[in-house]
UniProtKB/TrEMBL annotation:
Name of the molecule in the record: Glycerol acyltransferase
Superkingdom of origin organism: Bacteria
UniProt cross-references to NCBIfam families, sorted A to Z: conserved hypothetical phage tail region protein (TIGR02241)
GO terms of molecular function: acyltransferase activity; structural molecule activity
UniProt KW Transferase keyword: yes
Provenance organism: Neolewinella marina
Keyword Glycoprotein set for record: no
Keywords per UniProt: Acyltransferase, Transferase
Length: 149
């Protein structure tokens, strides 16, 4: 009998195609690796009981990344966001989300194609909480490819 060990979802890294620093690989969470197919409905003449559902185009959700905020000079990702939101210079990049094994090597890699910053949010400032100040980056992208590492 073979041993089946599902991978854990808490050990991962995000690598940006920016020549980003080592600080830019650490995120608290990644969400939005979602793909779905549109369904085109076709009605058949003489058949009134149902419609045919045919696969249409693939669509992808926005990618949401959360991490503790870094100072601007420390982070190439932050500089990329500043260029987009302050200077209106949006530069699409490719990035990789890698699920890591216990030896810290990639087991599965999602290659995210043509991503650009869609929104950039910051946590509420609250003196009654002792939490890490989080920034949330939402990226629009064209598609992703799943690769075994």
């Amino acid at each position: 009998m073979t041993n089946y060990h599902p991978m854990v979802g808490f050990h991962f890294r995000v690598t940006f195609g920016l020549g980003a620093s080592e600080l830019d690989v650490n995120f608290q969470s990644v969400a939005g690796l979602d793909a779905s197919l549109d369904v085109e409905t076709v009605r058949e003449g003489g058949e009134n009981r149902y419609e045919h559902g045919l696969p249409g185009r693939a669509k992808y959700a926005s990618l949401t990344l959360k991490r503790g905020m870094l100072r601007n000079e420390q982070s190439d990702v932050t500089k990329w966001c500043v260029e987009a939101f302050k200077n209106n210079r949006v530069t699409p990049i490719d990035l990789e989300v890698a699920l890591l094994g216990e030896d810290h090597t990639a087991r599965v890699v999602w290659k995210v194609i043509h991503a650009w910053p869609k929104s950039w949010k910051f946590n509420e400032l609250n003196a009654e909480r002792g939490e890490v100040f989080l920034e949330t980056l939402e990226l629009q992208y064209n598609r992703f490819e799943v690769q075994d590492a």
